Amino acid sequence: MDVVRKIGLSLGADICWPACYEALMRELDLKIKMGDETISFDVERVTIEPFDLQQPVKYDLVIDRLTHWYHTSREWIKKAILLDDLYVFNNPWSLQSMEKHTSYCAMMRLGMPIPDTWLLPPKSYDPSPDLSPTLTRYARLFDLGRPGDAMGYPLFLKPYDGGGWRSVVKTNSEAELRLAYEESGTEVMHVQAAVHPHDCFVRCIGFGPQVRMVRYDPGQPLHDRYTLDTTFLPPDQADHLRKITWTINAFFGWEFNSCESLRQDGVWYPIDFANPCPDSQVTSLHYHFPWLVKAYIRWSVFCAATRRQMKKNLDWEPYFEIAASDRNYEEKLEAYAKLAGDYFEADRFEEFCHQHLGHLDEVAWEFFSSMEAKRAVRAKTAAMFPTHEIDLFTELFWGRIQDWRNDTASGAKQSVSQG
Ligand SMILES: Nc1ncnc2c1ncn2[C@@H]1O[C@H](COP(=O)(O)OP(=O)(O)O)[C@@H](O)[C@H]1O
Ligand SMILES: [Mg+2]
Questions:
Q1: Best residue for ligand 1 mutational test, from 107, 158, 187 (most atoms within 8 Å of Cβ)
Q2: 2 phi, psi to nearest 5 deg
Q3: Does residue 192 contact residue 156 with C-beta atoms inside 8 Å?
Q4: Where are the alpha helices (DSSP H) in 160-260?
């Protein structure tokens, strides 16, 4: 029996990855045989319009890039999950309620070496009727020097809910910390011990069980922060970071997310891992962009084809049981990653890709030499750069994609996680 699974793309400013995703899905023209079904896929962009809460949803799966800020789509998605069992990544409730602060607390409980962190009441407030009685009764004067003394300098002052380097300040002394706090306005801020010095900064992009680790250089301009370095991690450390990424993403039910860790004296300190709508743009990912597009395809096709059930609720107890056991950190991490591997059906996914998506690497390798792919790169570049830089940067990003093609030799089979 022929069946069609409908995949919706819920998009905002995204230009490049959806264009490549759609083109590759067209070229793949999948006909996946499972049981007595032959499954093909129809990809469509989700539009924004008024909706009846009980109106049926035409999609089987939606890839969502709007929930973190566009509330109409967020509420449509919640309705579609609750009433129609739509599969969406990422889970809108988890995304809405778990900010950086929650992610720190949870991973501290799991034993990860999160740098010491304090939360501060804000410096100033927007007016509200209950503000004055609340603060008069309960807010205590505090000495900002105390967290500074407790943790030592340098310290980072940064918003508890993070994102895009907004209001992040590194302070080297109590005087600098006081000044930064004075200027922090209505933001609720963390003060966090710096992992300083560190000898490696890695961003791990997780997509279902797929993980790509990129050495990140925050001192560079945006287009050079994801480095082209692919051989910087010994296998045991790559495995350690994979387990951290799996654990975080499965714990919060985030099917795509990016996790930042810093290494000091051989220890990996996760510092920023609540990014569940991770950067997917060719203008920052360039060399790594084809991997991400393939990761989108593999995970969405797997979930839609197998009718994977979306986990609407999170279950943290199994993780807390491991955390409370007398195992050491590496053993705990191994046990968390096992839970996460089950959560993401890692083995079944690997087998599925092997059986049904074996030609993806080759098709993608060809596609990323095509004019259609180059047009997608140019369109995103044109949206981000001033007119006189569009040609220059299009060629830069395109050149790096060609470097990726050269490095992955004629579309030869690559591992699902790193290719
Ligand atoms: N504890 C820390 N130690 C060292 N560097 C840090 C620390 N916290 C933040 N930074 C630096 O500041 C940048 C932004 O902080 P981050 O927590 O990642 O915020 P955002 O959520 O805005 O990305 C990081 O990429 C890193 O370069
Ligand atoms: Mg960050």
A1: 158
A2: -85, 130
A3: yes
A4: 174-182, 235-252
Q: Which two tokens stand for residue 414?
A: 């690559």
Ligand 1 centroid, distance to 272 Cα (angstroms): 7
Please write the tens of the pLDDT for every residue from 299-310. Answer: 999 999 999 999
Q: What is the mean pLDDT of the chain?
A: 95
Provide the CATH number for the domain around residue 146: 3.30.1490.20
Mutate to test the pocket of ligand 1, among 156, 169, 262 (most ligand atoms within 8 A of CB): 156
Pair (365, 321) in one structural domain? yes
Give 387-402 pLDDT, tens digit per residue: 999 999 999 999 999 9
Domain end position, chosen among 193, 210, 231: 193
Distance separating alpha carbons of residues 116 and 133, to the nearest angstrom: 32
* Residues 273, 214 share a domain: yes
Separation of CA 47 from chain center: 23
* Domain region containing 153: 116-193
- 368 vs 87: CA distance, rounded Å: 29
Whether 249 and 288 share a structural domain = yes
Residues with CB under 6 A from ligand 1: 115, 156, 158, 162-166, 168, 192, 194-196, 218, 260, 262, 271-272
Per the CB < 8 A criterion, the answer to whether 181 and 144 are in contact is: yes
User: How confident is the model over 254-266, as pLDDT tens digits?
Assistant: 999 999 999 999 9
**Residue with CA nearest ligand 1 atom 14:** 165
Distance, in Å, from the CA atom of 251 to the CA atom of 61, rounded to the nearest integer, reads 21
Domain boundary among 141, 176, 193: 193
